[in-house]
Amino acid sequence: xxFFNRGPPAYGGGYGGMPPRRSGSGRTxxxxxxxxxxxxxxxxxxxWIKISESVSTALGPYFNGVVGVLxxxxxxxxxxxxxxx
Length: 85
Fold this sequence. Notes:
Elements: H1 25-46, H2 53-79
């Protein structure tokens, strides 16, 4: 029964020959967080939206910590090559 003993499908699996799409949810989350924190720091420098000083001083260390972690993760993502299947 050669029907059940076929080899692996061609690259891409289906009929179209396109490679399987990998989900990029981690990169999407990093992109959204990067945009949010980027806008926050741009707002701090240009004062487009006034934020009360008590809120900005209370949240400052947390924002700086998260931005530091994001920069480390983005640096690792830029430095590590993705796997090629």
